[in-house]
Amino acid sequence: MEEHCEALGRVFRILREHRLRLNPKKCSFGVRAGKFLGFMLTERGIEANPEKCQVVTNMRSVKEVQQFMGKVIALARFISKAAEMSTPLFATLKKGGRFAWTDECEEAFLRLKAMMAAPPVLTRPRPGMPLYLYISVSDDAISSVLIQEERGEQRPVYFTSKVLQGIERRYQKIEKAALAVVVASRRLRPYFQNVSIIV
Fold it and tell me: What are the residue boundaries of the Reverse transcriptase/retrotransposon-derived protein RNase H-like domain, all occurrences included (predicted)?
């Protein structure tokens, strides 16, 4: 707690020096957990906001699929291989086609729903400790997870995934793996600065 108070003191001094003000209604101090940018920050790490994890039960229209996919995209940093699992659902949203809910869509929906119901807690990276980037490639998507080891246990920091478009689908596996590293390094740029990354 002392360290936290010292850090707050430094922040307040800098704010005063630059004549910046904080809105007291939007500030919280000395709390164990709170909402920040739509996520829950706790002692354990970054958690998904429970309000965003509530899911529609049936998919009857394009609009319901769009709403569900909006929630998936908002929580993608918590879902391993989100883009790969979402591919059948995105197919139902293509313009010009009829809405058709297939068995493949139902399976993808149930898997995503289960993952959203119990998302993992993402850890905050510890300075000076290496990060590990694991990548996965398939015919339709690439995925990665940034992990840090803590007391012999690997804990996720951030999940990324991307549906492959056009010519990207024809890439060789090694090219898709390289693309996965590029996508992860762009999306996770703040995590890649001043830290050793093991791929």
Answer: 101-198
